[in-house]
Specification:
Heat Shock Protein 90; 3 domains; 6-stranded mixed β-sheet; about 20% strand
Length: about 500
């Protein structure tokens, strides 16, 4: 008996063509593996072990978890494409949506996908093989039982688990391509580890986290994009907004200037993509990171772009999985678009955070206040004119003023020299070096030995005390409020009258 609708034709897609098309969704190896690990978390796994095994064209990748596992019927459903509708209500902690992640993520990297699962002392195993489907008759939707011949040993680790699941990728044609070497494989492992450390950092954090990920037996350390534990990180109060899809939670952060970080902290805080690329909103869904730094098309008029001046701005944004449609979440769980009802409020929060980040980034161009004291004397000041921004040496800076006061007939020549310096500041070169390089240019005696700073300090101190008649205390107080020596209070205090 036919179940066809009247006046309709049954038009199922051909399996091989459909699956080959789905391979082009745009997964990287790292994002594909993250999708597989989502399933492990949903299965309440405490540990996921990702294994990379190099053997040239026979290289494989395995993902083994100790989750609750699947029965034969559950595995059958999990291996079918679209076994659940994206419109179905989900458990609040579910990381899935489309019922495609396991398959599309795997096919994006390999031609043979095998999944074995153990539950209630029973083990089931099913396999998709794109090469076999390519020669299949009719629609060709043939899900094969058991592993391929010769691949049984790859599934052996599951036998040591009371329950759990292992995913096996073989024929890695999207990874091991022409010219791909073992070193490339090792580099890929590093990229995957960095990505997983970022995407799942909130699951991996804590002194004794319940969940952990291993990559080739090495535990993945979480990467916190917000440096929340650093005393110099600025964090806003948490704000919550009610939307049709549920509660959205936002917290803004401005990371410390590099001067407040040691070299190792600075390099690590830059993240997998580097400081400028990691700015913006970090969109999470059930604590799982979806978007690792984006301004989400927000801004006034034209959307904001990633600029060096805002490199320290990072905003945590949590959405529930009931808001997937509202945020236009894609299959790869890598893009999200804020609903119209939130765009204005998110833009205002982001604008404030961007402004704060810019002030921290460019703090040497700002008036810096020392608690309980006058503002720090800056060597440079910015002038806003109708013709644009100009940068001038502050002639009242103690060092500059001291030289000019004692210059006598050379004063006019020194002033001319200062004017030449002002007119030839390589602003464009500095900006290019800053935006194109890995770090900002060194200033303020950065990286210099204390003895170098102290030598300059002693010259200024002697001039103030011996020639200007200041008391040693007054001279030290003024130096402590003078750029760049305000960064070296301990050296200032060692000066002897």
């Amino acid at each position: 008996m036919s179940n066809h609708l009247p006046g309709s034709r049954h038009a199922p897609p051909k399996a091989s063509s459909m699956l080959e098309a789905l391979r082009g969704l745009g997964y990287s190896t790292a994002t594909a593996l993250a999708d597989i690990i989502d399933n492990s978390i949903a299965a309440e796994a405490d540990e996921v072990a990702v294994g990379f095994h190099w053997d040239y064209q026979r290289s494989i990748i395995t993902i083994l978890d100790d989750g609750k596992g699947m029965t034969s019927a559950e595995l059958d459903a999990a291996m079918r494409l679209g076994h659940r509708s994206p419109l179905d209500a989900r458990d609040p902690n579910d990381l899935g949506r489309f019922g495609l992640g396991l398959k599309t993520a795997s096919f994006s990297q390999c031609r043979r996908l095998t999944v074995a699962s153990r539950k209630a002392e029973c083990t089931s195993c099913l396999m998709w093989d794109l090469d076999i489907l390519e020669t299949a008759d009719e629609d060709g939707w043939y899900l094969l039982e058991g592993p391929a011949k010769g691949s049984e040993d790859f599934l052996e680790p599951l036998k040591n688990k009371a329950h759990g699941t292992i995913v096996l990728w073989e024929h890695l044609d999207r990874i091991v391509t022409g010219g791909f070497t073992e070193q490339d494989y090792l580099d890929l492992i590093d990229l995957v580890e960095q990505h997983l450390a970022m995407v799942f950092h909130r699951f991996l954090e804590g002194p004794r986290p319940k969940f952990r990920i291993l990559v080739n037996s090495r535990p993945v350390a979480p990467w916190d994009p917000f440096l929340a534990s650093h005393p110099a990180t600025w964090s806003s109060p948490i704000e919550r907004f009610e939307t049709e899809g549920g509660t959205v939670e936002v917290q803004c952060h401005v990371l410390p200037h590099r001067d407040r970080l040691d070299p190792r902290e600075c390099e690590r805080a830059g993240g997998p993509a580097g400081w400028p690329a990691q700015q913006g909103f970090y969109v999470y869904r059930n604590r799982r990171l979806l978007v690792p730094g984006s301004w989400l098309g927000l801004g006034y008029g034209r959307g904001w772009t990633k600029e060096e001046a805002q490199r320290l701005a990072r905003i945590r944004l949590d959405i529930p999985n009931s808001a997937d449609a509202e945020w236009k979440l894609d299959i790869r769980k890598s893009t999200a678009k804020p609903p119209v009802s939130l765009r204005g409020r998110l833009t205002r929060l982001a604008e404030d955070t961007r402004g704060r980040a810019r002030r921290v980034f460019a703090h040497r161009g700002q008036v810096i206040a020392v608690p309980g004291q006058a503002a720090v004397s800056q060597a440079w000041r910015a002038e806003h004119t109708s013709g644009g921004m100009r940068y001038r040496i502050d002639l009242n800076h103690p060092v500059v003023k001291g030289v000019l006061d004692d210059a006598g007939p050379l004063r006019v020549h020194i002033q001319a020299m200062l004017r030449v310096i002002e007119e030839t500041v390589p602003v464009q070169r500095i900006w290019l070096d800053t935006t194109e390089g890995k770090d900002v240019p060194r200033t303020g005696f950065s990286g210099e030995a204390p003895a170098e700073v102290l030598a300059v300090l002693e010259i200024m101190f002697r001039n103030m005390v011996d020639k200007k008649g200041m008391s040693p205390k007054m001279a030290k107080d003024q130096l402590a409020r003078t750029e760049p020596f305000h960064n070296y209070p301990e050296l200032v205090m060692t000066l002897q009258g």
